[in-house]
Amino acid sequence: MKIETMTMESPEYPEHLKSIPDAPEKLYYSGDIGIIEHPLIAVVGTRRCSPYGRWAAEKISEKIARCGVSVVSGMASGIDTAAHRGCIKGGMPTIAVLGTGVDICFPSSNRQLYERIAAEGLLISEYPPGEGGRPAYFPQRNRIISGLSKSVIVVEGAPRSGSMITARLALEQGRDVFAVPGNIDQPNSLGVNKLIADGAYPILELESVCEVLGIGVTEKQKIIRTLSEEEIMLLGFISEQPGMTIEYAAFKTGFDYLTASTLASGLELKGLVSLRGQRVFLQK
């Protein structure tokens, strides 16, 4: 394993991390340091997770990865492990911030995941090689997890757990905090449910994860967000009934023919529809 170091003066030191008050002076790493140049999302949670929490962490991380964004976590058992695996499954490299030296796999049960991250992703730590994990190291490394990330998602955690520490640090660092609502009958749901009650953004469904996080927005989606109310109305009717004539579009929207024609031409210029004679179709 090749282990390298960087300081706050190194060109590869991430600016996002440098901006936090207690940024580490030196970092040790192994793997592709280029991953930290792109936006990152942290997914964290309890080691003693429920099957639902493990499923949610993996699926959310997979969705994030399929939006082209890498996931940061701490490679602990439970939620962290599921987050890393979901990111890999989604086709993106993942970053593990360790509470040990980067040459030490902890927990040992994650050996296969550790080796995969070392080969395809990034292992990073503020502790030198050979340094074993101490209880104080793991809460301390959480500031790096949130500091590297654009946003933090918490999936299960008791009120005084490490994941709640990460959420607090993220808020202090000016990061957005999201939480997955939990079963009120589960002790590890209390922390995340309180986060939501205190203002964290809830993750309510898988399909809208990327949109809620503000990542992976397509050029088409960006254009749609700039449309006027009239354009949105016309586009909606065309979506429901592609191939309608301009005359019928005018009838459906209540616009006069000239207005409907002008709006349709504008949507065509924006690449959202195509005009074929007097008929209008969605642009694929």
Low-confidence stretches: none
Main sheet characteristics = 9 strands, mixed
Q: What's the CATH C level of the largest domain? A: Alpha Beta
Strand neighbour order, sheet with most strands: 1-2-6-5-4-3-7-8-9
Percent of residues in helices: 40-55%
Shape: elongated
Structural class determined from secondary elements? alpha/beta
CATH-derived architecture of the largest domain: 3-Layer(aba) Sandwich
The average pLDDT score comes to: 91
The end-to-end span amounts to: 47 Å
Total number of domains: 2
Total number of helices? 12
CATH topology of the largest domain: the name is Rossmann fold
Could you tell me the strand content as a percent range? 15-25%
Order of helices and strands: EHEEHEHEHEHEHEHEHHHEHHEE
Rg (C-alpha, Å): 23 Å
Count of beta strands: 12
What are the main properties of this structure?
2 domains, nine-stranded mixed β-sheet, Arc Repressor Mutant, subunit A, 284 residues, three-stranded antiparallel β-sheet, alpha/beta, Rossmann fold, single chain
